Amino acid sequence: MFIKFILLISFIFNFFIKEAISQVVDEVNNLLSIVAIVNDEPITMMDLDARLRLIIISSNLPNNLETRKNLSGQVLQSLISERLQHQEAKKLGIRVTDQEVKNNIRFIEQQNNMEENQLIQRLFNSGVPKSALPIRLKSNLIMQKLLQNIIRPKVIINNNEVDNEYNNLLANNGKMEYQFSEISFKFSSLSKKEDIILIAKQIRKKIIEENNFEIIGKRIQENGTGIYKKNDWKLTNKINKDIFLKINDLEQNKVSELVITNTEVSIIKVDGKREFKIPELSNTVTDIAFISFDLPINKNKTNLIVKDVKGITENIKSCDEMTEIAKVHGNKRGKYLGKILLQNLPTYFIEELKTLDINQPSKPIIASDGIYVTMICKYNKELNQEFAIKEMIKENIRNRSTTILKERYLLDLNRKALIDVRI
């Protein structure tokens, strides 16, 4: 009887051991199963699961089956887009180093008052694989380099467009303008519109409860769930109609109801409202010429060269004269620059310009790439103001155009790719 009991216990034990092993094997196989193939490169369930965990924990969403179901399609679309960007970067010779990723992680830690390596460990303690955040941040850095090297250089700014915006700006002086932040989630073919709206509702609820729009927005941007941006001040005619209808009656720091369009769902926070006044920017512009000299190979002779430079330049009376002398003396790279924003000049130039009168040559400026003498050519407050405003407009146009070209670029990558989705 005792032997039969022992055999029965042994049978039951072996049965449960086999069941447990079988479950582990099934789970491993499930994680290794392929959910999509992008130009012959697989995305596995493990990749999808890691990103879902990162998003749920970093966005403080409920970690349940419903949240995972609602997020899965959107997250898979993000993984596919990132894989396409990685492939394109590799083809173009664009690389992101491990050190760049580590620096990015350290920056996030510093922004959140964390010790070094604390962020990854904290995520790991919450069930997020240690590789999940670095993989996501590497994708962010690749996109930044594609923007900088491939997309942004294609932006063409038309002078007529700048003039039109400048005239509109003058016409709108005194009208109302708004500043607002937004978190937006794009609709995609891999996720139901209703699922994305449900996620947006959950996130809006968290924002209201915790009063932390900016923190959640930055996390969403980092983990790739959606897009977070803090807009510059915008006049009414520059705001999307659907957004304006939601924010027009909101008080400062209040959060809107969901803004749903054909392409995305957004959450808006009003940062401020005010009467638009054209900013005074004339003091941010200068009008200069310069002459430059090479540094001596023997650094001990620098003072002698500086003495010679001073002798050549100290009696120059105008920018025209400096431009002519630059054709004869120095390394021939000196010239009349004309109007330029101070922020675009090296610090050593800016500091020296503060001490100068018009048509007064500076003392020789020793820099890492040469010795310079500069001069303020003229000052016209009205023309400087117009130049500064138009440069601001150009930057706004450049940013808008870059965003549009980025969307087209990513759509083009998707169209050309062979993508096989298996879930």
Structure description:
The protein has 423 residues and is α+β, with helices and mostly antiparallel strands. Helix content is 54%, strand content 16%. The protein has 14 helices and twelve strands. The strands form three sheets. Strands 3, 4, 5, 6 and 7 form a five-stranded antiparallel β-sheet that branches. Strands 9-8-11-10 form a four-stranded antiparallel β-sheet, sandwiched between helices. Strands 2-1-12 form a three-stranded antiparallel β-sheet. About 3% of the residues have low confidence.
Short description:
The chain is an alpha+beta fold and about 425 residues long. It has helices at about 1-30, 45-60, 65-90, 100-110, 120-125, 130-150, 160-170, 195-210, 215-225, 240-245, 300-315, 320-325, 345-355, 380-415; strands spanning about 35-40, 40-45, 175-185, 225-230, 235, 260, 265-275, 285-295, 335-340, 365, 370-375, 420. The strands form three sheets. Strands 3, 4, 5, 6 and 7 form a five-stranded antiparallel beta sheet that branches.
